[in-house]
Design brief:
It contains nine helices and eleven strands. With 296 residues, the protein is an alpha/beta fold. It has a domain of 191 residues: Metal-dependent hydrolases (TIM Barrel), CATH 3.20.20.140. Strand 8, helix 8 and strand 9 form a beta-alpha-beta unit. Helix 5 packs parallel to helix 7 and helix 7 packs across helix 8. The longest helix has 24 residues. Bound molecules: zinc ion (2 copies). The site of one zinc ion (ZN) has 5 residues, from loops. One zinc ion binds next to loops.
Length: 296
């Protein structure tokens, strides 16, 4: 522990959570550059600021408005700019980490492994955004075409993919662990009530624990149509029961949202018994960062 957890840096209303490991930039589809995101995060009182831009994807995995080419072009600049801002942060007593949010694409593990192998990331977030070539979190109209049973099948496969993602050994953190609910909260909750939901969910979270990974607890869901923290309470209960370690994240894509709703996030995690979040370390045990839940 380096003493920054209780530094009290920032304004009196600053969040007691001082770590945000999930920030995007304008190198993909964010709206602010690395420096602006750093300044915004610092102004929120964060002591550990983790950048986690999207990684390039193999051919065939496209969203309707794809930014893959931009990612490929911008990656060298992203790496250089984050390393530069990390040097500046160190001089100001703030730790900046160079991460990446890499898609988990089942059957394309070699692509991801090759991408990561040549680069010196501090940590890798695994993001499930695709089933096959379908980017399921892009367009609510895709979901309107699915029956309830078809949606249930998507949910189950999501957790099968998460188990495979965790077993791949490529990632330190599982991003937004129920993103699949984004456009169909009602059906997702109905699915969680069924007998078919718990086995794949528990397999995924157990695989996460066995891999020594962290479960992301993200305020991004509060800004999305599902209007709920990722993951929701029933999944958090299983996570707590299994003793999973967590990592806090805003998934900010603009300068207004680093540490977004982190006081709420802290209260939420504390309600499940959590007293610290974690930061991955290279090859060692995750670092623990205590937090306290502020009064509402
Ligand atoms: Zn994501
Ligand atoms: Zn993200």
């Amino acid at each position: 522990m380096n003493g920054i957890a209780a530094s009290g840096r920032g304004d009196p209303g600053a969040t007691p959570v001082v770590v945000d490991l999930h920030l995007h930039t304008d190198h993909a589809h964010g709206t602010a550059d690395v420096r602006s995101m750093y300044l915004a995060a610092r102004s929120k009182g964060l002591a550990v600021i983790g950048f986690s831009e999207h990684s390039p994807r193999p051919d065939g995995f496209v969203y309707a408005s794809d930014y893959r080419e931009k990612l490929v072009r911008g990656l060298p600049d992203y790496l250089r700019e984050v390393r530069e801002i990390a040097r500046r942060g160190a001089a100001q007593g703030i730790e900046v980490l160079l991460g990446i949010e890499a898609d988990y694409l089942r059957g394309h593990e070699a692509y991801t492994r090759d991408f990561l192998a040549g680069r010196d990331f501090d940590y890798v977030i695994g993001g499930l955004h695709f089933q096959g070539a379908w980017g399921f979190d892009a367009d609510p109209a895709d979901w309107e075409r699915l029956s309830r049973q078809e949606r249930f099948a998507v949910y189950a496969r999501y957790y099968d993919d998460m188990a495979a993602m965790c077993a791949s050994g490529l990632f330190h953190i599982a991003a937004h662990p129920d993103l699949v609910k984004i456009f169909s909260m009602e059906d997702f909750n109905l699915w969680l009530d069924t007998d078919e939901a718990l086995p794949p969910l528990r397999r995924a979270l157990t695989a996460l624990r066995d891999a020594g990974m962290l479960l992301e607890v993200s305020s991004a869901g509060l800004r999305k149509p599902c209007r709920e923290i990722y993951p929701g309470p029933r999944i958090m209960a299983v996570a707590a029961e299994l003793g999973l370690d967590i990592a806090f994240a805003s998934d900010a894509h603009c300068a207004a949202t680093p540490a977004f709703a982190f006081a709420e996030l802290a209260r939420y995690a504390a309600a499940f018994g959590y007293t610290y979040s974690c930061i991955p370390t290279r090859g060692g045990a995750a670092r623990r960062m205590p937090f306290s839940a502020p009064p509402p």
